[in-house]
Amino acid sequence: MKTKSLNSSTVLLMAVSAAIIVANINYIQPIEADIAQQFNLANSVVGAVAMLTQLGYAFGLLLIVPMGDIMNRRTLILRLLSLAIISAMLAFVAPNIWVYAAASLLIGITSVAPQVIIPYAGFLAPDGQRGRVLGNVLSGLLVGVLLSRTVSGVLASVLPWQAVYLIAAVMIALLGLVLVKKLPRDPVTNHQTTYRAMIKTVPRLVKKYPVLRASAVNGFVLFGVSNIFWATLVFYLQHQYHWGSREAGLLALLGVTGVLAAPLIGRLADQFKPRTIIGLGLVLSTVAYVVFLTFGTHLAGLIVGIVILDLGTQFGQVANQARVQSIDPRASSRFNSVFMFGYFMGGALGSFFGNLLWDFAGWQGVCVLGFIVLVAGFYAHFVHYPHVVRKRTQQAS
Prior knowledge:
Layout lengths: L7 H15 L9 H8 L3 H21 L9 H21 L3 H14 L3 H11 L5 H29 L4 H20 L12 H14 L1 H32 L3 H7 L4 H16 L2 H22 L3 H26 L7 H53 L13
Helix pairs in contact: 1-6, 1-7, 1-8, 2-3, 3-5, 3-15, 4-5, 4-8, 6-7, 6-15, 7-11, 7-12, 7-14, 10-13, 10-14, 10-15, 12-14, 13-14, 13-15
InterPro entries: MFS, MFS_dom, MFS_trans_sf
Subcellular location: Cell membrane
Membrane topology: Multi-pass membrane protein
C-alpha cells in the first residue's frame, strides 16, 4: 500500500465536491409547490416523488457506496458523476410527472459520490485529525444542502423550475473536469474481494457492531425530523404568509450556522465521546420543534427554530460519522453505507409522512410527528443502546 496523505487543499476540494453533488437530491424541496401546480397534483403526491429521490439515495448508499472498499475510489467517484449528469438532464426534459419521478429516483441513486468521498477522506486522514477532517468535508456537504434549497427556490421564482436541473448538470460536468486532474489517487491497489462477497459482509457488520446500528438509528431519527420540516416548509409559508419557493430557499440560508459549526463539532468529537455530542443533537432538534410548535406562526420563531434544527442535525451527523469511521478503516465504505442508508431512509420517510400530515392535520400535525420520531430517538440512544463500544481490532470482513 502506498503512503496515505491528505493536505488542506485536498480536503477543500473534497468538501466542494460533496457540496455540488449532494445538492442534486435537495433541489426538489423548495419547488414542490411549483411542480404540484404544473402537473396538477396534490401536495402529498409531490411528497411521494420527493421521497423517491431520498429512497434512491438510500439504496445507492446500500448497493453502490460499498464498492469503495473493493475498487479504485477515484474511478468510482468519476463514474458516478457521469451518471448524475444524465439523471439531472432527464429531470430537465421530463414532459410529465412519471418521467420526472423516474428521474428523481435516478438522481438519488447517482448522487451518492459524496458518501464515497467522506470515508475516503476519513481513510486518508491521520488518526488524531479524523474528526476535524470529516467535520470540514461534512461542512461542504451541508453547504450543498443549504445552497441547493436557496438556489432552487430563487431560480424557480424567476425561471421555469426545470432550469434548476440544467444548471445542476453543467455544474457537475465542470466539477468532473477538475476532479480528473486534482482528485488524489487511491493508495489501495490490492483489492481482491468480489462485489458479491463484499455485499454479503454488510449484514454481518451490522450484526457485529452495535455502534454501527446505534449510529444508523440515530441518523434515521435526526435526518427524519429535519426532512419533516423542510419538506413541508414551502406549503406552510404559502398558507401562513402567501410566500413561495423563493422565500423557502432564502430561509434555507439560515443553515449557515450548521456550516460554521461543523469543524468545531468535529473537534469536539475528537476530544469528547461522540455519543455525548449525538445526545446533544437530539436535544437541540427537540428544542427546535418546541419553538416551531409554540412560536412557528411568527417569522422570528421560525428563524430561531431553523437555526437550532440545523445545528442539531449537524451535531448528530458529524459525531456519528466520526465514530463510524473509527471502527475499522478496512470497511469504511461499508460502514458509511449502512449509516447513511439509515440516515436517508429517515429522510425519505420524513418527507413523505411530513407532507401527508400537512394535508391531514396542518402545521400542528407536522410538529407532533416530529416529536413522536424524536421520542423514539431518545429511547434508542439512552435506553436501547445505552453504551456501545467500538471494536477497532476485530476483523471487518
